[in-house]
Design goal:
Number of strands: 3
Strand content: 5-15%
Order of helices and strands: HHHHHHHHHHHEEE
Number of helices: 11
Oligomer: single chain
Distance between the termini: 29 Å
């Protein structure tokens, strides 16, 4: 409950983790989500969204990258227990401070909600479809190179740096990311289906809105934990509906 005391400590924690782990590490995301809860306690609506949605973006991308090298059951368990910036953001649209939110708040939250839908199942289905499509020996060889590069990157992220190897961790992580992206680009050049699958991963609010007929609207329902963390047991759950109208923006209910 000590917001004034917590603020400099969270800021310092964020600086330390960004410096040692990089700005896109899941532990950085967890600190961002903790900061967003602090901003919520202080009634700082815009900062709640900024920190919560940045944290959610990092964790969503990390889950996508990790799910590619996990079993479906493992990926689903990870999704069920990970920290959720989206929960904090959804809660912020319904709390007493929502009048302080910018007009674009609902659109930003809807964009993350769209991108988070069926994340694990989509990644597993993509993996199966890609395997079935890669019939030639050459494509199969490139697909295995992609899988191996993804495993190396995920392992580095999950394990983190050893205490004595912190200075060399970030260069190693960036090298692994570069190798993963390079193998993905190579396979995308050779396989139309893999190229299409890669393109569908970043479907968000803009593409959904563009696909809506002018006389239609989209209602997106979501359930979230009011504490902003998905926990085993029976946390307090709430529901929200986001209404998207072509040409008229988005509003929560």
């Amino acid at each position: 409950g000590d917001v004034a005391g917590a603020r400099p400590l969270y800021q310092r924690a964020l600086e330390i983790r960004e410096k040692s782990l990089g700005e896109d590490h899941p532990l950085v995301a967890e600190t961002l989500i903790d900061l967003s809860r602090m901003h919520a306690a202080a009634g700082e609506g815009p900062l709640v969204l900024e920190r919560a949605l940045r944290g959610e973006t990092i964790l969503r991308r990390h889950l996508q990258e990790t799910a590619r090298s996990l079993s479906e059951a493992e990926a689903l368990r990870y999704e069920a227990i990970r920290a959720s910036g989206l929960d904090v953001a959804l809660a912020s649209l319904s709390d007493v401070h929502r009048d302080a939110m910018p007009a674009s708040a609902s659109v930003a939250v809807l964009d993350q909600l769209v991108r988070s839908r069926a994340l694990v199942l989509d990644e597993i289905a993509t993996r199966h479809r890609t395997i079935l499509d890669l019939k030639s020996a050459e494509l199969s060889s490139h697909a295995e190179a992609v899988a191996a590069a993804r495993r190396r990157f995920s392992r580095l992220v999950v394990m983190g740096p050893e205490p004595r190897s912190v200075p060399s961790y970030l260069p190693a992580l960036e090298q692994a990311r570069h190798e993963m992206e390079a193998t993905e680009r190579k396979l995308a050049e050779m396989s139309a289906s893999f190229r299409q699958e890669m393109g569908t991963r970043e479907i968000g609010h803009d593409r959904i809105k563009a696909a809506l007929p002018q006389d239609a609207s989209l209602v997106s329902y979501a359930v979230y934990s009011e504490g902003g963390v998905r926990t085993i047991g029976k946390p307090k759950r709430s529901y929200v509906a986001l209404y998207l109208f072509p040409g008229r923006g988005c509003r929560p209910s």
